Amino acid sequence: MIWVDGMEEDKKEIVLKNFIQKIIEDDISNGKNGGAVITRFPPEPNGYLHIGHAKSICLNFGIARQYGGRTNLRFDDTNPAKEENEYIDSIQEDVRWLGFDWGDKVCYASNYFDKMYELAVRLIKMGKAYVDDLSADEIREYRGTLTEPGKESPYRNRSVEENLDLFEKMKNGEFPDGSKTLRAKIDMASGNLNFRDPVMYRIVRASHPRQGNKWCIYPMYDWAHGLEDSIEGITHSICTLEFESHRPLYDWFLEQFEEMHHPQQIEFARLNLNYTVMSKRKLLKLVKENHVKGWDDPRMPTISGLRRRGYSPESIREFAAKIGVAKMDSIVDIALLEHCLREDLNQRALRRMVVLDPLKVIIDNYPEDQVEWLEGENNPEQENSGTRKIPFTRELYIEREDFMIDPPKKYFRLSPGKEIRLKHAYYITCVSYKTDENGNVTEVHCTYDPASKGGWTEDGRKVKGTSHWVSAKENLKVEVRLYDRLFTKENPDEDGDFLSCLNPDSFKVLENCLGEVSLKEAKAKNGEYYQFLRQGYFSLDYDSTADKLIFNRSVSLKDSWSK
Fold first, then answer.
1. Residue 355 and residue 477: Cα distance in Å, rounded?
2. Which of 12, 17, 70, 270 is catalytic?
3. What is this structure's pTM?
């Protein structure tokens, strides 16, 4: 029996072990690493985390928790030109919100800059690294192709003494940005292009979020990656498939130093989701060019965007468990993510009635000044969810689409002479209606059956149509924001221009909606979720104030895209 999400309050039994679990269990049984399991989640703080990172978070933290280990949260802060403290803060918030904890210590690649520099000097002294004057374009040109070997740099055979002197001057800021690099001296004819004298350091004058201006040379990821894992004693370095061809290089670097610990790297397929872009560069473009309203726009696949839209951490963990872990790339249908949300919110969301497009209904035979407080359950899926009070008055509002003067067959809502049920209230029958000069219905007059309170009658009659409603006298004006998929194509990158298929209907604001008065108690950021009857699942937006409540639609009640 295996619990992949590791959450005490919400365990999910998985019968089949994935290939990573099998590797780890073999290592434990063989006594490797003393039976320890230490993983890491190493984001670069150059943007906000997205749903693909959520899969990796659940995997790394879940695996370690499952086998009694730990996970390091480590920021790969090796590129100060693109990194900001805002991203560091948001990443920590996202990981915590998903339900995971890294203990009392956050790790940073920059903590190891001195050690990395020391090891680079040692590599130069071994004759296995050199300072190169080739430009970035020239390095690419000299590198060769998959079918042709690369060419050696004319600076490749500098003496150890010259390389040590030049590298120190690079560190001391004596050369312009981009004028020199430090490269490993390996094999320019290797079939693995990563071995063709990879760049280890480049000159970058940019203030570092944590180191300030201490350094003007920064390690490249291929040099830093394995060293970071080694220094932290990581036992299982779980990466996505694009790092598979880099693994031999990470091993080569570590093999040059006898004292360095060797983590085991295991690759898995990253998450690809249709109707979505997952590239940080493209997500940043959406933000910078104002195609969305920030990283936490509810249409974004970022964890902060999903949180603001009303996704629960449980639904995302369940999604990660359902898609599993594989060695082959594939595309996951976003409908599965939405399904996981519906399944979760159906169990936890409080039911409320909100009318998005109000049409007034007047019950002619109901006492004019009476306010009757009816009772409605908070969630029929949860026995202990309790009830709330709903005010019923002579004048009400229903959805405009719930009344038709001349309805088609199988229309079960209100129409002249027809009887329907008002949710939690009474049966009403339409007796007349009024229209304006354009023929638009302005109000509907009905009578009610006092004996049908709660939707039941002594004669046992039933009606097929049920409408939600709110009192015209006792209600709450709210703004409702309807969100849909950001792109109209399954593969937004299919034509090479993902911006060309932005969905013009991905965002709609309804300003004159009316809801139950009980919604006054709604709060943002505290895990409250709502099902607006017949409308979908909603949560309170962060922009809400005491005078203006704003609700975001998290997901509709049914998948309309599949049609």
1. 10
2. 270
3. 0.91
Whole-angstrom distance, CA of residue 172 vs CA of residue 320: 46
β-partners of residue 3 are 13
In whole angstroms, give the CA distance from residue 420 to residue 462: 9
- CA proximity to 303, closest of 492, 92, 101: 92
Respond yes or no: is residue 122 known to be catalytic: no
Annotated catalytic residue within 44, 138, 244, 528: 44
Contacts of 61 (CB under 8 A, 6+ apart): 6, 39, 41, 71, 95, 100
CA nearest 263: which of 69, 128, 125, 131?
69
pLDDT at res. 4? 44
Instruction: Supply the pLDDT for residue 522.
Output: 83
Query: Distance (Å, rounded) from C-alpha 186 to C-alpha 207?
Result: 32
The structure tokens listed for 541 are: 């937006």
Q: Catalytic residue at 280? A: yes
Q: Which of 55, 57, 68 is nearest to 25 (CA)?
A: 68
Rounded-to-integer distance, Cα 457 and Cα 267, Å: 64
Residue 7 confidence (pLDDT) = 46
Q: What is the enclosing helix (H) or strand (E) of 93?
A: helix 85-97
Cα–Cα dist 122/324, whole Å: 42
**Whether 468 contacts 398, CB under 8 Å:** yes
Beta-bridge mates of residue 387:
377
The one catalytic residue among 280, 299, 317, 351: 280
List, in sequence order, the alpha helices (H) in 238-384: 247-255, 280-288, 303-309, 313-323, 334-348
Helix 19-29 × helix 51-66 angle, to 10°: 30
Q: Give the type of residue at 372.
A: E
Q: What is the DSSP string of 163-213?
A: HHHHHHHHHTT-S-TTS-EEEE---TT-SSGGGS--EEEEE----BTTTBT
DSSP structural state of residue 414: B
CB 483 within 8 A of CB 550: no
CB-count exposure of residue 487 (10 Å: 0-12, 13-18, 19+): buried
Opening angle at CA 444, ends 352 and 374, nearest 5: 35
Whether 105 is a known active-site residue: answer no
Low-confidence ranges of the chain (pLDDT < 70): 1-16, 524-526, 560-563
Q: What is the pLDDT of residue 524?
A: 59
Six-digit token pair at 31? Answer: 């006594």
Separation CA 95–CA 89 (nearest Å): 10
The predicted pLDDT at position 296 comes to 97
d(C-alpha 468, C-alpha 532), whole Å:
9
CA atoms of 77 and 80, how far apart (whole Å) = 7
Question: Which of 479, 402, 477 lies closest to 441 in space, CA to CA?
Answer: 402
H or E segment to which residue 19 belongs: helix 19-29
Question: CA 194, CA 3: separation in Å to the nearest integer?
Answer: 37
The pLDDT of residue 8? 46
